[in-house]
Description:
Elements: H1 5-46, H2 50-72, H3 78-99, H4 107-123, H5 134-143
Helix pairs in contact: 1-2, 1-3, 2-3
Amino acid sequence: xxxxxxxxxxxxxxxxxxxxxxxxxxxxxxxxxxxxxxxxxxxxxxxxxxxxxxxxxxxxxxxxxxxxxxxxxxxxxxxxxxxxxxxxxxxxxxxxxxxxxxxxxxxxxxxxxxxxxxxxxxxxxxxxxxxxxxxxxxxxxxxxxxxxxxxxx
Length: 153
């Protein structure tokens, strides 16, 4: 039995609404990534406190893009102004991300790194937690042969 025309119209409207919602979410996600990318470099240079940087990066990115957009639209169209601001701020964001890069373990290195703690926790789950000693952890990772130059060590 075919659907009545009213049901087809409702179904088409529903699908169009879902597609518009997905497009809006994709645009918002991309915008947030651009704002974080622009703002991360500036907060990395300007803020000494580690915990606030990632929280303030989107707001700083929005402020920088807004100022650049306002200043550049006197000379070029709006879409070109935004592109110029993003392209100018990209090297700073790329430098920041390069500086914050992580380290890569092979499977054998990772297995050696976690085996002791894994065995102790598996059978002594009520054991008192160990103290975090960052320098000892970094030295242990370096002793495994992992490249920790990305951490400035």
